[in-house]
Specification:
The protein folds into 2 domains: 131 residues, D-amino Acid Aminotransferase, Chain A, domain 1 (2-Layer Sandwich); 130 residues, Beta Barrel (OB fold (Dihydrolipoamide Acetyltransferase, E2P)). Helices cover 17% and strands 32% of the residues. The protein contains 6 helices and 20 strands.
Length: 339
């Protein structure tokens, strides 16, 4: 095997529109964790996007790769965890646990899937310099001979049809995080963003401010905590926004300090330290839930916005009780059947 870890994966730059033309290949952007898989006989190494080892967290995938007839290869793909017919990023994150016994239990309850989308090395021959259309042909041949031996390994769909890519994009928000477009004539540009682009579905939601956090070491607001009302009638914490201007922080601090009142969130509330944020997660101030904001977001999963949201405007015209979970109902839908 020519290629050795750590190998920086090829990345994609963000654009607003799906590029059209005959020189592009389109792929789903899966809601998972990037992984480069190395196999050299009995040695199997899983590498994260950041170059860190992942094998200890995904023993089920290591076992699946070890059963393939091919003895030497390097694959690029995405680790995902299906739960109740949809991909769960929360369940995927739970795998990153220090206790091996806990990881084994999670793997048994919800086995992972490795969705493969690129072929980088086989039997000591590197494919990095070969154009994507040649690598895809080699990958499909590899898949026909190998991936049938395990349900945990899947070949990611790919198409050169723009209309199909548009259909995938419209389904973004469940299993899909968007669409990836790659140049058919481009080599595998390790660590670069020159040969691929990513397009995410940006959505909006009206949320209630149920609390805030002070900026670190300052008595000024650092972020607003967002909530949505569930079917139970309770206000559940779903994320945060901090995209206001520095010049606005003093006025916002005065405004929301004047609204301080427990409990803020009547349903799920910001908890202690978690895998999403820092050791200051538990430090927040509850406020009367009367202020509504419209925010833009790219993904909602596990009852919360995956990333920080972008504040679009203050909704003085909207009642807090109108800010309900049905705005983000697409989060649980199946987006694309795995082949």
């Amino acid at each position: 095997m020519v290629l050795k870890p750590p190998l920086p994966p090829m990345e994609a730059r963000s654009v607003q529109e799906i590029p059209a033309g005959h020189d592009w290949q389109y792929e789903p952007k899966w809601d998972g964790c990037r992984c480069i898989a190395f196999r050299d006989s009995k040695k199997i190494y899983l590498q994260s996007k950041a170059g860190q080892p992942l094998a200890r967290y995904f023993p089920d995938i290591v076992a699946a790769l070890g059963k393939l007839p091919e003895q030497q290869f390097v694959l690029d793909g995405e680790l995902v965890v299906p739960v109740s017919g949809a991909l769960s990023f929360d369940e995927l994150q739970l795998r990153l646990h220090p206790a091996a016994s806990r990881v084994q239990k999670l793997a048994k309850a919800h086995p992972a899937i490795y969705i493969v989308f690129d072929f980088l090395d086989q039997s000591g021959q590197s494919f990095l310099k070969q154009p994507l259309h040649e690598r895809r042909d080699l990958l499909e041949k590899f898949a026909r001979s190998n991936l049938k031996f395990s349900k945990a390994l899947r070949l990611s769909p790919a198409t050169t049809d723009y209309r199909t890519a548009r259909k995938w994009f419209k389904k973004a928000g469940g299993n899909l995080d968007g669409v990836i477009a790659k140049r058919l004539d481009a080599p595998y540009t390790s660590g670069e963003r020159t040969a691929a682009v990513k397009i995410k579905q940006i959505r909006t939601a009206d949320c209630v401010v149920g609390g805030f956090r002070y900026a670190r070491n300052k008595r000024l607001i650092g972020s607003l905590l967002l909530g949505l009302y569930g079917e139970d009638g309770l206000l559940h914490h779903v994320g945060f926004t901090s995209s206001f201007k520095a010049s606005e922080r003093r006025e916002l601090t005065k405004k929301f300090e004047g609204l301080k009142k427990s409990p803020g969130f009547t349903g799920s509330a910001p908890g202690g330290p978690s895998r999403w944020s820092t050791d200051r997660t538990g430090e927040w101030e509850p406020v009367t839930p009367k202020v509504v904001v419209e925010v833009a977001y790219d993904h909602f999963t596990g009852g919360r916005f995956r990333h920080g949201t972008r504040l679009l405007r203050w909704r003085h015209d909207k009642a807090p009780r109108q800010c309900t979970m049905d705005q983000v109902d697409h989060r649980e839908g199946k987006s694309l059947v795995l082949l």
